[in-house]
Design brief:
The protein contains 13 helices and seven strands. With 365 residues, it is mostly helical. It has two domains: 215 residues, Orthogonal Bundle (Lysozyme), CATH 1.10.530; 121 residues, no CATH class. The strands form three sheets. A three-stranded antiparallel sheet has the order 3-4-5. It has a two-stranded antiparallel sheet with strand order 1-2.
Length: 365
C-alpha cells in the first residue's frame, strides 16, 4: 500500500489529545459494522480491517478517504475498471482506485486480500490471531513501514478492536449470514504473476509456506463457517488455456477438471489433496505423477495448493520470459508456466531450489 505519512503533532493541551482519540473512536463507531460483515463474508478479521483503515486513512482524514472513498490506499492495478485518481506515493503521480462509497472500499479491501495469492496463508491462521495477521501482512509486502505490524497491534489493543472479530464469530455461530451488498465498482481479481510487477507494496507475492502446521480445531471450525459464506461460481472445464490466460483467474478458482497449460494436461489441487487418489482416479502411475511435477518420492498429501500435471511438462515455455514476484520459487514458476524444473534451472544457470529475486527476469526458453 501507500507509504504512511507520519506527522508529528505538538500537543499543547490534553484537550487536543482527547480530540484525536475521539476522532479515532468516531471512525471505529462508523465502520465497525461493515468490518464485522466483511469478516463474516470473507474471513478477514474485523480487528485487522479496522486497524488498517485507521492507519491507512488517518481515521478517514486522508485526501484519498475524503475525496475518493479509498480507505486502504489500494492502487489501480491493471484489472481496475472503475474511476481513478492520481497522487504522489512511492513515486510521483500514482494511480489509486476511487469508490462510490466507503463501504465499497471496505469490500474491495477484503476481496483484495482474499483473492490474491500473496495473502493465502493468512487465512490458515485462526481468525482471532490478530498478531499473526499483522505480521503476515508485513511479510507478504502489504506495507513498507518496518513497524507496520506493531502499529496495527497497538491500535487493536488500545481500542479493543478484537471485540469486533469476536462479534463476527459469535454471529456465525448463531447461523447468521453476512449482508450481500454488491460493490458499485466491479473488478476482476487477477493473479497474473507473468505480468511485470508494479512497484506496489500490496501487490507482492507469496511468502514462505506455513501451511504445514495444522491449524487447531477452533481455527478450522471458524474457517469452515466463514468459507460457507464465501461460495463463488467456479469456472467451467476448458479444453486449452494458455499460461497467460490461466493467470487471469483467481488462484483458488482454476477451471475444474482437466485443462491445459503450455499444451499440457493439468489439474488444480487444493491443500490436503492426495496424489495417490489422483493417480488412481486418472489411471496413471503415481510415480509418473511425481516425475511430471518434480516432486520428491513419497509425496502424497499436498501441504499447499498446487497445479499437478498429468503429462510430462515441456522443456520450453510458451513465452520467452517470466517476471518474478516476491517470494516466488523456481518450482512455483515451473508449475505456473508448465515447464520442466530442470530445464528452467539450466536456462537461468541456477539451482532447482533457487529463490530468484522479485522483479528478476526468468528465461523460459
Amino acid at each position: 500500500m501507500r507509504k504512511l505519512i507520519l506527522t508529528t503533532f505538538v500537543v499543547a493541551t490534553s484537550f487536543t489529545l482527547n480530540a484525536q482519540n475521539t476522532s479515532v473512536q468516531d471512525y471505529i463507531d462508523q465502520y465497525k459494522d461493515i468490518a464485522v460483515n466483511e469478516m463474516m463474508r470473507t474471513g478477514v478479521p474485523a480487528s485487522i480491517t479496522l486497524a488498517q483503515g485507521i492507519l491507512e486513512s488517518g481515521s478517514g482524514n486522508s485526501k484519498l478517504a475524503k475525496y475518493s472513498n479509498n480507505h486502504f490506499g489500494i492502487k489501480c492495478k491493471k484489472e481496475w475498471a472503475g474511476e481513478t485518481v492520481y497522487q504522489d506515493d512511492d513515486v510521483r503521480n500514482e494511480c489509486f482506485r476511487v469508490y462510490k462509497t466507503a463501504e465499497d472500499s471496505y469490500r474491495d479491501h477484503s476481496d483484495f486480500l482474499k483473492n490474491r495469492p500473496y495473502y493465502t496463508t493468512l487465512f490458515d491462521l485462526e481468525p482471532t490471531d490478530y498478531k499473526g495477521w499483522a505480521k503476515g501482512l508485513k511479510k507478504a509486502g502489504y506495507a513498507t513501514e518496518r513497524d507496520y505490524p506493531q502499529n496495527l497491534i497497538g491500535l487493536i489493543e488500545k481500542y479493543d478492536l478484537e471485540q469486533y472479530s469476536d462479534e463476527a464469530l459469535a454471529r456465525l455461530d448463531k447461523g447468521e449470514k453476512p449482508q450481500d451488498n454488491t460493490v458499485a465498482n466491479t473488478q476482476t481479481y487477477a493473479s497474473n504473476n507473468n505480468a511485470p510487477q508494479e512497484k506496489n507494496n500490496a501487490d507482492l507475492a507469496l511468502f514462505s509456506d506455513n501451511s504445514a502446521t495444522q491449524p487447531n480445531t477452533t481455527a478450522s471450525s471458524n474457517t469452515e463457517k466463514i468459507a460457507a459464506n464465501n461460495t463463488q461460481d467456479i469456472p467451467q472445464k476448458t479444453d486449452n488455456i494458455a499460461a497467460d490466460d490461466i493467470c487471469t483467474l483467481q488462484a483458488n478458482l482454476y477451471p475444474t477438471g482437466v485443462f491445459k497449460i503450455n499444451k499440457t494436461k493439468v489439474v488444480y489441487l487444493t491443500k490436503g489433496s492426495s496424489l495417490f487418489a489422483l493417480a488412481s482416479t486418472k489411471g496413471i502411475s503415481y510415480y509418473k505423477l511425481l516425475d511430471n511435477n518434480d516432486l520428491e518420492a513419497g509425496t502424497d498429501i499436498l501441504r499447499k495448493d498446487r497445479l499437478i500435471y498429468l503429462e510430462k511438462k515441456p522443456k520450453k515455455g510458451e513465452k520467452e520470459t517470466h517476471m518474478v514476484a516476491n517470494g516466488e520459487s523456481l518450482d512455483e514458476i515451473a508449475q505456473k508456466e508448465g515447464i520442466q524444473l530442470n530445464s528452467l534451472a539450466e536456462y537461468n544457470h541456477v539451482q532447482t531450489s533457487s529463490m530468484p529475486l522479485a522483479g528478476e527476469t526468468v528465461y523460459l526458453k
